[in-house]
Specification:
elongated; serine/threonine-protein kinase; mainly alpha; Serine Threonine Protein Phosphatase 5, Tetratricopeptide repeat; 73% helix; kinase; ARM-type_fold; EC 2.7.11.1
Amino acid sequence: ESMQAFWDIEEVQAKGIQHLASFVKDKSAFPYLLTCTEVITLAMKIHTDSLDLQVEGCTLLLEILSQALEQGVMMALDESVASCLLHTVRKHSENEEFLSMLCTLLMMVSASEVAAENLRKVGIIPDLLSILRRFLHNDKICFSCCAVLWSLAVSENNNSDQAVLESALPVTSAVLQKHLQNGVVAESACSALWALALQGCLTDSDYEPTAALLLDALRMNPERAVLVKNGCLALASLVRLSETAALAILLDSKGSGTELIKDEYHLHSDEPGVAEALCLLMNEMVQYDEVMLDMRSQKMEKLLSEIKLQFPFS
């Protein structure tokens, strides 16, 4: 109440945030802290020039959200909170260290469909792309921003964002290219590319290079089951759209894509999610006669029989 009574006095807001932060370790205070997110974000919006207040507010929100996720509580932050966060992003778009923290916060917020929808409504996607272009070298920022992009791109109501999402393909591909050997970032970028493919954000000239890049990610990170699954789902979406993508998988300059599929299955033969994604990819590939003939010559039926034996009830 005191924070709400004295919005314009920075010291009151800062002291209020510090005092609220002192309750974070007290589990019984958690339900009350949940009700404070709007007060905290509004304080950040009104006093955007105070970096100390921004950092303390952001740290407190991260603590509250972390506890919420641990306890399975989904925080559906409303549009006014989303607007405040966007305001903070724009005000501090050059501060790499603070942005890294802020993008982590956005990623956690976007786990809720309602909050993701509100972030999309206030127009955060161009800002995310701008941050990615500026800080392509920063793995934490790239990981968080690609995760947010994934959440926003799979939103059902994003028809109005189609042009913006199409402009996300080059920068998302650049993230994957830059961080191919960083499994965590590559996994996040593969998910974002999958979402963009699902939304039809690629043109004819994008299918081949995007397929080649996804194959590179699979080769570089064969042990990461989630990356393999999402990479295969992204490839399946590309193949569904174009035979060019299917041929790119077969004729990849770095080795046969069908051999890669076999290797990935044998590496993750106890992972139903990976097997399902691989089957989906193969199902899309056999829609094209020329591709199906090649897969037959590579004895892919043998692999499918193996999968069927391994997962008879799926």
